[in-house]
Each structure stands twice: as C-alpha cells, then as structure tokens.
Design the sequence.
C-alpha cells in the first residue's frame, strides 16, 4: 500500500512540475512502432538538459571510472507525439524533473545559462518516462563500477549500449576532503508534519543523514545525541569526516570522543559569519571557555568578508579560531594571510552559499552542471584547504513545496534558486538531485587527483588541473574537454592494493 501511495504522489508532482495533465491515459505496455517518433542521444552528467535542448550526438554510453566509483550519464529524449515509454535496465534509472525559475535573481546573474525559466534537478527513480510532444526530457543513469561489464538500457523499442571501463584502482571508502553540510531545518519537520524534537523527526533525519553519506558528504550533526551509544557507530564510521559537538558536549563526553579517536572529526561553531568588531570580541570571549574546557578542540568560524569596520579577522581572533572557513570569493582576497595561519597549525576550509554567483563555481540551482563538479578541482588546487562547507541541504523554511519552489531565501533574494536545498522530499524519504550527484562526482574526482598526485607527482597533476581551471574565476565550460582530461588522468594511475 505504501508503494501505491508513493506512486500516486510521484505521479502528481511530476504532472504539476511539467505543467501537463493528459486527458487520456497512456500505456507503456506496447512500445512497438514508437521508435519512429523519438529522437534521442547520450549526454554526459556534466551537461544540463533543457526542454528546448535537441538530442544530438552519441548513440552509446562509454563509461570510465575507478572500481566502486559512481559514474552517471544521461539519455536525452524528445518525441513528435506524447508517449509513455517503459525502461528496462540493470542500472539505476531516474527521471530528471524540471524546477520552475520564473524570475532572475536580484544581483549576480546576466548570462543565458543562469537565467532560464526552468532548470533540471530532482532525480526520481523510475521505470517509465512520459514524453510530451516536442518537450525534451532526460533519464539519469547511474553506474556503480564493480568491473568492466557492458550492458544495454532499453527504452521502449530503443536499445542503448553501455560500455563500461574500470580503471585498475579502487575508490576509497573514506573521503579525503572533509565536508560539513547543514541538514536539521524546521522546514524539513514542517514538510513531514512532525515535531522537530520528536522520534518521528529523528527517524526522518537519519534517512537524510545516511543519504548524504552515500554522496560522500557529512552533515553537521550526528543522527543521535552525543551521549547516545548509537552515536559511536557514526563517530567511527570511515565515511563520516566531521560532526559538530556544540550541542550537549560535556567534559565526560569529550573524553569519550577522544577515547574513540574521533576528536579530529569534531568541531564547534558558535557564531556564523561575524560582520562587526563587537562580534569578534564576543567570539574571543566565547572561545576562551571552550578552549579551557576542551583543550585541542577545533573552534570554527565562517567568513564571507571583513568586519564592517574594515578589519580582517586574523589579528583579533588569532588565539580563538583554529578552523577558518572562507567563502571562495573572500578567500581570493586573503589567501596570503590564510596561508600564514595554516603554517601556524590552523585549518583552512572553503564554502559557498548564496554567493559567489555568475563567473564562479557554486552549487546553486542555476549554475552549470560542470561548475558544480569543477568546484572540487579548484578546492584540490588550493593545497592548504582541507574541507568544504555548504550551509544546508534541506532549508525549506521559506517555501511551501520544494518541488515547485526553490526560492529558498526569500528574505535575502526572492529569486535565488536552490540556496541551502539539495534534496527533494518523498513520502518515505529523500529524493536526490543532479547537484548532489555532481558533488559526489567532484568528491570522487578529488580522490582521483589525490591518487594521481601520489603516483605521478604534484607538478604533473597540476598540469592536468590547469587544462580545466587556473583560478576560481578561470575555468572551462567545455564538457568534452573535461571528460578527456579526467579519463586520461584516471587511466594513468597504476593499480594500488588495498
């Protein structure tokens, strides 16, 4: 019964998001004679497909990756008439749903790629695809590479060959780049109509937390309180790179965390993005207490600019903050000082949020697919950076329905799309997104670069990186060039035993 309800729910929001309600029912049982109406082609995951994109190009998918790596591609479809086609595949298949973006953000965007009326993002598991007349849709196909084994995806009476090449090394389970993603919003509780402090909410939260782990991302807070024995399993999970401890931490719990060897994953953030000297002074007072109670604790602070009085944070906060997280555009202005703090033993992270926008890589809905992924190549090129932060994955506090409204921070910019929102809610848990898939791909690329650096040397790897990006604002948008560089580099890494 639950599956039937889910099917009805998915069908309803797909109809709403596509703005179509067919007057007649369509059957996927008989796909004969449909091939003549359908145009199709293979597209890489690093390309966003729009309703007016015409399918052209390859007629087979050629997949390359490390063992245990997730690699995706798209099947782009367009029909001369309305059709419902069945999908038969040994691989995971998802319908890519369009999100309406009817207005342009108040600042930061001008180019066509950033101001379209709809953007593809939600990924809904499916074994059928509904094509409207002369409206392009894509199917997202995900492969977890276990070995080189070719296969076929069948859509209606179309047969799409999938050729899989496995490199001679394995994607590590434990991510090399630390991540920290917000998750625990009031909007998440509101959508599921549960109290944020209830057991029902904690169950939902665990589903979203575990889903983030599958994308190689760690949420701010563990699914269990620090004093719950079940939290220990997550603290020691090799997939978990970080967790916040500013809720309920006591000296006894800190000692327990240290005994597990998990103190290097833990961090505290009491103040977010200080903007005045008085904020700096408040942070200094607060940090003193934390450092006295918990020697060695990582005391983090996020910065997108100097204080309003024109003061950089380094001098005033030198003995307070030891984990500095900078928005990427701000980092370019203070990189020399950040390097000095790194030399003194502090950690440096980067983050993106509602900025920077056009001309910078970000995870916002209307950025290009390649920008979502190349961000992690840029982070790797900054040798002192050890972490990436994105402030939220389920910030739906200002929207009624994330499926139809991704203007998530209306109080700041009523037409900024997807800030703090990476998942889409289904009745029984989260649906993923293109952006999450591309973030995972970027994090897997980070592992590729790290392994290549160990085997080929830093100079050689930098030559590959610079073919794609030389700075945060100088990077390619050519998806073919990106794939050629990635494939060539991945194939050069020699086999490494576990």
Sequence:
């Amino acid at each position: 019964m639950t599956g039937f309800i889910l099917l009805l729910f998915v069908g309803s929001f797909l109809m709403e998001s596509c703005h179509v309600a067919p007057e007649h029912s369509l059957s996927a049982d008989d796909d004969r004679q449909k091939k003549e109406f359908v145009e199709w082609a293979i597209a890489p995951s690093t390309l966003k497909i729009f309703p007016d994109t015409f399918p052209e190009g390859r007629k087979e998918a050629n997949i390359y990756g490390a063992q245990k790596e997730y690699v995706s591609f798209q099947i782009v479809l367009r029909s001369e008439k309305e059709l419902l086609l069945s999908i038969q595949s040994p691989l995971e298949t998802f319908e890519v749903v369009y999100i309406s973006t009817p207005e342009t953000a108040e600042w930061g965007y001008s180019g066509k790629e950033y101001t379209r009326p709809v953007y593809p993002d939600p990924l809904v598991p499916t074994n059928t695809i509904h094509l409207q007349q002369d409206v392009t849709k894509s199917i997202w196909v995900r492969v977890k590479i276990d070995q080189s084994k070719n296969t076929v995806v069948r859509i209606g009476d179309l047969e799409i060959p999938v050729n899989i090449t496995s490199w001679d090394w394995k994607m590590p389970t434990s991510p090399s780049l630390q991540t920290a993603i917000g998750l625990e919003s009031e909007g998440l509780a509101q959508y599921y109509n549960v109290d944020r402090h209830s057991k029902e909410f904690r169950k939902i939260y665990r589903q979203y937390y575990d889903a983030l782990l599958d994308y190689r991302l760690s949420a701010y807070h563990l699914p269990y309180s620090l004093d719950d024995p079940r939290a220990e399993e997550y603290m020691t999970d090799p997939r978990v790179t970080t967790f916040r401890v500013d809720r309920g931490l006591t000296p006894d719990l800190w000692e327990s965390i240290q005994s597990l060897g998990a103190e290097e994953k833990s961090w505290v953030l009491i103040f977010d993005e200080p903007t005045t000297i008085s904020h700096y002074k408040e942070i200094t007072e607060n940090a003193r207490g934390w450092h006295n109670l918990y020697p060695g604790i990582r005391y983090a602070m996020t910065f997108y600019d100097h204080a309003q009085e024109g003061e950089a944070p380094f001098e005033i906060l030198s003995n307070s903050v030891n984990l500095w997280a900078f928005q990427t555009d701000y980092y370019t202005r203070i990189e020399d000082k950040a390097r000095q703090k790194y030399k003194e033993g502090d950690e440096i992270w980067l983050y993106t949020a509602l900025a920077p926008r056009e001309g910078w890589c970000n995870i916002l809905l209307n950025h290009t697919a390649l920008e979502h992924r190349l961000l992690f190549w840029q982070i790797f090129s900054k040798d002192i950076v050890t972490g990436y932060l994105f402030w939220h994955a389920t910030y739906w506090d200002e929207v009624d329905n994330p499926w139809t409204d991704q203007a998530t921070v209306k109080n700041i910019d009523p037409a900024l799309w997807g800030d703090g929102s990476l998942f889409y809610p289904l009745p029984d848990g989260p649906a993923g997104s293109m952006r999450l898939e591309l973030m995972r791909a970027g994090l897997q690329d980070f592992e590729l670069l790290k392994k290549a650096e160990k085997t080929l040397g830093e100079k050689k790897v930098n030559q590959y990186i610079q073919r794609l990006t030389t700075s945060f604002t100088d990077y390619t948008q050519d998806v073919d060039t990106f794939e050629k560089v990635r494939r060539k580099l991945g194939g050069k890494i020699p086999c490494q035993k576990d």
